[in-house]
Amino acid sequence: MCELLMRMTLDSICKVGFGVEIGTLSPNLPDNRFAKAFDAANIIVTLRFIDPLWKIKKFLGVGSEAVLDQSIKIIDDFTYSVIHRRKKEIEETQEIPNNGKIKHDILSRFIELGKDPENNINDKSLRDVVLNFVIAGRDTTATTLSWAIYMIMTHDHVAEKLYEELKSFEKDRAEEENVCLKPCETQDPESFDQRTKQFAELMSYDTLGKLYYLHAVITETLRLYPAVPQDPKGILNDDILPDGTKVKAGGMVTYVPYSMGRMEYNWGPDANEFKPERWLKDGLFQNASPFKFTAFQAGPRICLGKDSAYLQMKMALAILCRFFKFELVEGHAVEYRMMTILSMKNGLKIKVSTRS
Ligand code: HEM
């Protein structure tokens, strides 16, 4: 399941961020060299923190450092091909007179800014923009979706409550749009497919905002399994923190969303329990201060993609939890893989059944 979700979020960030369809989630699941190289580079760079010999290996070009060099080459090739494709498409559309098409993706906006030499944007800085958005937007949402599905399938009452919310959302939306819901025969793939498509079409940015329980399920997942479990900061100058702690230039300060999300001091005696209800008051979602719920960081450098991440995760989970039931494969151990992102070491092996 984790790999499929990673493919989905990679396709999605490439489409929304860079305006290109890369189709890694197409039915034949094509070999995904970029994703493999990206994962390998992520692991190797993180392991440098605990491998005192990494500089020597890098100098000699051996072991994991040799793999890193190959991975970087694959990542660069992919990234530059995305940039060149987008640039070419922009040029071609601009050749059509009075075309007036506005490019909404992030990469196009940076390419546009690059036309002014004062902005000093070249292909290398565009590559960094692309990679930054892949790093920020792929693993974070994919891993949160994996933990959310794990939480939903191990808490039956949550799965049922969510299903009820999605069923009544579907009914209400069909009434609002004045359309009849198509039949949903779980044994007939064609009919089942048609109904899932119809459900997807009934979703919109505004209407997804009404799915309070789903919003609470995702937020509760991020409280217990924040995609960025710890977030270290380098100290530039000697300073004194608000509580009086003195910190020295060259040192590090880390805030730890994983621990903060589980502190009884913050969340009460049931802090370790998965309870989406804690986010609801009279059925409406109640947000917490970002300084208490720190999964997206707080202050001026808070995550820029928070709303887009919720939107994507809500769309994916709404379809999955409305039409499918999940069960953990017997004996499969769900364990942490502690990298920059809190992912699952052995993936998430599940049995899936359909719901009418
Ligand atoms: C569950 C999903 C996500 C989580 C938990 C998350 C979490 C975070 C966190 C903790 C930071 C602060 C990192 C730091 O200290 O420097 C951050 C920054 C950022 N995130 Fe997200 N993120 C998510 C999804 C996304 C998505 C989908 C995008 C883009 C489409 C995105 C774009 C960004 C950007 C651009 C920054 C840098 C903001 C800045 O430094 O000013 N994030 N995110």
From TrEMBL:
CDD domains: CYP86A. GO terms for biological process: sporopollenin biosynthetic process. The keyword Metal-binding applies. GO terms for molecular function: alkane 1-monooxygenase activity; heme binding; iron ion binding. Keywords: Heme, Iron, Metal-binding, Oxidoreductase. Its cofactor is heme. This is Cytochrome P450. The lineage of its organism: Eukaryota, Viridiplantae, Streptophyta, Embryophyta, Tracheophyta.
